[in-house]
Amino acid sequence: MLVVLDFDETISVDDTMAVLASASPLFGDGGRWRSFVSAYTDDLAAFDAAAPTRHTLDDLLAHLARLRTVELASVSRITGSGYFAGTTHARIAAAADAVTLRQGFHDFVHTQEERGVQLGILSVHWSRTFICAATGFDLDAVVGWGSGRWVVANELVFGEDAKATGGCSKVDGVLVGEDKRRVIAGLMEEEKQQVVYVGDSNTDLPALLQAHVGVIMGHNESLANNCNRFGVQVRPYREYTKGQKGLYRVANFAELQALIDAIHT
Fold first, then answer.
1. Concatenated DSSP letters of 78-137
2. Cα 223–chain centre separation
3. CA distance 202 to 204
4. pTM passes above 0.90
5. pLDDT, tens digit only, all 265 positions of the chain
6. 60 with 54: CB under 8 angstroms?
7. What is the DSSP string of 185-252?
8. What phi and psi, each to the nearest 5 degrees, are found at residue 195?
9. Using CA of residue 101, residue 75, residue 39, residue 181, what is the dihedral sign?
């Protein structure tokens, strides 16, 4: 079995991009970063206002895929400003210390390792280094290898002086939910074993639907509304039936562990 988790608000309690932003030498009082967030929010609102009405689940998935244009504009805005230039691995690791993880995460990881279950993280986050520092996952782990712990995410670009140049691999990396879906589909094909994906938001929906078993962590209102609107059935984790493909909901890592136990036995 291969269990793949989203990072922000699935493993972490809150979104962590502002925490990563604090690692920049230009962070100051956070005003510059807030201007990026405001511009992104405006772009997103304009995109939604201009988008055609979604009538079906396929319409919704296509809409989520088209968000790539909004994400690329944000990447261009931030990298073009050189905001992360001069950031170091040490500053990123120090910032990651401020991340609060959901209770029970480390116990969950330990249990999977004891059972030989592969465990990965798949995220649209800007920094794989940051995620590894926050979770204790191995920055050098190879995706899908053995029973190791690996991370698929974007990364700040570092120069020969080990300082960030201001660039980011997100330009051709994991931008939107469709990118996550493709990674999960590839793992299902290559690993030839059951893949469980755990996420919390609309960005995770394509991967949740692709996986053998999709697990929604918590109760993101927008995701719940979209599932209800477009006929995506989400069952309580206690209703899992062996071998049944579908989506299930858990509130925490203890409930996720109970579901994995039911799948694994």
1. HHHHTTTTT-BHHHHHHHHTTPPBPTTHHHHHHHHHHHT-EEEEE---S-HHHHHHHH--
2. 14
3. 5
4. yes
5. 899 999 999 999 999 999 999 999 999 999 999 999 999 999 999 999 999 999 999 999 999 999 999 999 999 999 999 999 999 999 999 999 999 999 999 999 999 989 888 899 999 999 999 999 999 887 776 565 454 688 999 999 999 999 999 999 986 789 999 999 999 999 999 877 899 999 999 999 999 999 999 999 999 999 999 999 999 999 999 999 888 889 999 999 999 999 999 998 7
6. yes
7. HHHHHHH-S-EEEEE-SGGGHHHHHHSSEEEEES--HHHHHHHHHTT--EEEGGG--TT--EEEEESS
8. -115, 125
9. negative
> Residue 61 is encoded by which pair of tokens?
């998935």
Position 206, amino acid: P
Q: Cβ(253)–Cβ(108) under 8 Å?
A: yes
Rounded Cα–Cα distance for residues 45 and 24 (Å) = 27
Q: Is 52 helix (H, G, I), strand (E, B) or coil?
A: coil
Report residue 87 as tokens: 């950031």
Q: Are 13 and 101 a contacting pair, CB within 8 Å?
A: yes
Token representation of residue 23: 């690692």
